[in-house]
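Pasting as-is:
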Amino acid sequence: MTDSGMKKDNKETGTETKETRLQLLKKQATESDPKPSPTLTLRKILGGDILYGELVRSQIWVILLIVLFTIIYVAFRYQCQQDMITIDKLQTQLKDAKYKALSSSSTLTERYRESRVLELLRLNNDSLLHIAEQPPYIIIIDE
């Protein structure tokens, strides 16, 4: 072979090498995810490999929105349950207060009934109060 033949072969080899290198770089530089293996193992899930998937990355805002709504739902439900517990306690206190007021009213009515007062007056002989034997007088004043 001549020198010109060797140079031609080197140029062709160099061109082929550049093309193969370029193709190799293009293959490595793609942003597409590698195809997941058909088997989904616990190690891949716990290792976080599932979070790198194209589907998860493209739907991240939807996933975050669902998480936000779930947190809000749980918070409102908790607050509602706390309010229901407070309402139940207040209703119980109100019922107790009503029963206590009814009991006090009944006791006062029984203590200050006319027959009971008259009985207490009879038992205390030293009292100046007594039952009127005559009806009250009506005094009419002319103007």
